Amino acid sequence: MIKINFLVDNKYFLVDNCFILVDNQVMHQSTLEIRKKIIDALRSDIVDLNNYIQRQFNISRQAVNKHLRALEEEGFLTSFGKTKNKNYQLGEIRQQSKIIKLDKKIDEFDVYSQDFEWVVENAPKNIQEIVDWGFTEILNNAIDHAQAKIVFIVLSIKEKELFLTICDDGEGIFNRIKRIKDFDSDQRVVLELSKGKLTTDDENHTGLDIFFSIEAFDFFAIYSNNHLYNFNNNTEINLEKYGFEKVFKMGDDLGFSTAVRMSIKLSSTTKLKDVFDKFAKAPEFEFDTTIVSLYLVNEKQNLVSRSQAKQATNRLEEFKFVTFDFKGIGSIGQGFADELFRVYPNKNPQISFDYVNADVEVEKMIKRVKK
Fold first, then answer.
1. Among residues 15, 37, 115, 349, which one has the fewest Cβ atoms lying within 10 Å of its Cβ?
2. Per-residue pLDDT tens digits of the chain, which is 371 residues long
3. Domains along the chain?
């Protein structure tokens, strides 16, 4: 028998080393086992599904039909045919979740292809490529950098949107980067991560993973040290509605130090190739372009000092093209603007600077210091 551990107010279950998230209900152990087996059987193209489940659990045809109907009503299955000739296939709603013990033999590409790729097999090709990238790159971070023993992964599709969560029990992404790079705050780490080319292992990693994931997905957030950072500054995302807060709370309760959550609508037209072409231009295809999201400099969005501007411009000499994004910023101080648009550019004439999403007040200050 598969052992199930009830966790977090009976809302989360461990089934055969896989977490199953159940909202607003508590399922009996055998119910979870049966429904998981049904999904696995469909993935394996088992012939005569009903008889197979009957034999596996020694239950009646009527009992199996009850589970099949429930899964179909929830959108996990679709059916065609009637009564005894009814056949089932996987539905639009899909979910796979798994706990994986990490060691040097774990390969992120094998984990994705063997256990998770089926979730997106019917998604548009551009979505498949983005998920493949985000999944393998973030999992590789946990394997190579986090000093983690286990990871918890959930990949799901619901209401025409895909969600990917990867948690690990390692040192914690902010703690590790602060320790190695000598940064003074989590906020500083988030800012530097968002620029790209930040890595704690220069010999083996380029720092592309998080930056390109942020640009490819509709939503990208990291939860660690009791802080949730939304890298996309997407105010349209309702964290509670989309389950982000619940997932991150679960990570805390289960002892995970870092949780990365990504989402993208299946209707998205974003292509991974276009993201790479935008920031790594031909003919060199060097990662030489970045966007600095200035709201990440200060959570309170008060940008007034030269020291804040120096944080914004830190490491920008590694790039040739820099765009400052003022989305969410209502005003800036003269010292901040002068450092950002006069002092630093004069010291680094090899860099081409631009800015976007500046409102009227910000635009006035920029023009004033540029005179």
1. 349
2. 223 333 333 344 443 334 444 444 445 667 878 888 999 899 888 888 999 999 999 999 999 999 999 999 988 999 988 767 788 999 988 988 888 888 878 899 999 999 999 999 999 999 999 999 999 999 998 888 878 888 989 898 988 999 999 989 889 999 999 999 999 999 999 999 999 999 887 776 777 888 999 999 999 989 888 787 888 765 455 555 555 566 666 666 667 889 898 999 999 999 999 999 999 877 777 899 999 999 999 877 689 999 999 999 999 999 999 999 999 898 999 999 999 999 999 999 999 999 999 999 999 999 999 88
3. 18-90 (1.10.10.10), 94-272 (3.30.565.10), 288-370 (no CATH)
Q: For the whole model, what pTM was predicted?
A: 0.83
End-to-end Cα, the chain, rounded Å? 75
- Per the CB < 8 A criterion, the answer to whether 320 and 311 are in contact is no
d(CA 239, CA 252): 16
Give me 81's structure tokens.
Answer: 């045919």
Residue the block writes with tokens 């028998």: 1
Cross-strand partners of 261: 165, 221
Q: Which two tokens stand for residue 199?
A: 């890595």
Rounded CA separation 202/181 (Å): 12
Tokens at residue 241, please? Answer: 């509605």
Kindly write down the DSSP assignment for every residue of 96-164, as one continuous string: EEEEEE--TT--HHHHIIIIIGGGGTTS-HHHHHHHHHHHHHHHHHHHHTS--SEEEEEEEEETTEEEE
Residue 100 near residue 155, CB atoms below 8 Å:
no
By C-alpha distance, which of 76, 111, 90 is closest to 46?
90
Spell out a b/e string for 283-316, using b for 16 or more CB atoms within 10 Å of the CB, else e.
eeeebbbbbbbbbbbbeeeebeebebbebbbeeb
The position carrying tokens 């992120």 is 108
Return the amino acid letter for 14: L
